[in-house]
Amino acid sequence: MSDLRITEAFLYMDYLCFRALCCKGPPPARPEYDLVCIGLTGSGKTSLLSKLCSESPENVVSTTGFSIKAVPFQNAILNVKELGGADNIRKYWSRYYQGSQGVIFVLDSASSEDDLETARNELHSALQHPQLCTLPFLILANHQDKPAARSVQEVKKYFELEPLARGKRWILQPCSLDDMEALKDSFSQLINLLEEKDHEAVRM
Fold first, then answer.
1. β-sheet bridge partners, residue 37
2. According to the annotation, is 111 in a ligand binding site?
3. Would the annotation count 65 as a binding residue?
4. Annotation: CATH topology of 30-201
5. Which residues bind GTP (predicted)?
6. Where are the domains of the chain?
7. Are 46 and 65 in contact (CB under 8 A)?
8. Would you say 25 is a known binding-site residue?
9. pLDDT digits over 97-133, tens only?
């Protein structure tokens, strides 16, 4: 092969590499979903969201009013509005529901019976609220690393989820800060539910 042909071949390969690297255009934008995150004080909402955002645990401060975090995943960005869980805040939760596309409810699976009963009542209210009742729910039974933690089956039975949430889109998952892979998997399942709801809306 002549030197000219070899030079042409190398130039063509350089051209193909240039096109592959520079001319394929930006990647498609990830969809964004607006979620509301609720649960009693001490359930671990702030710590879980901060860990998903790779924030230092030393800087975590319990939410007293509300805060917003953009939680990035490979196939979506979740804009999570976390609401404080204190007694004097919970009565205002519903003011922040508008515009939500999904719900994250965090409960302390190792809490006292009184706190568990309160969490149960708050979840029932959320599941039946007009602005939330048709939305996908991710229910996280947090603090599974604690000795007193109740199992997912115990939580499901105590919260009466099967009869109450029948016909709704919901996921109940165990979680703890020690198992981030399981937590990310739970959020991936929620994203799947959000995408399904989007597709249904398009078909309609």
1. 82, 104
2. no
3. no
4. Rossmann fold (3.40.50)
5. 39-46, 85, 142-145
6. 30-201
7. no
8. no
9. 999 999 999 999 999 999 999 999 999 999 999 999 9
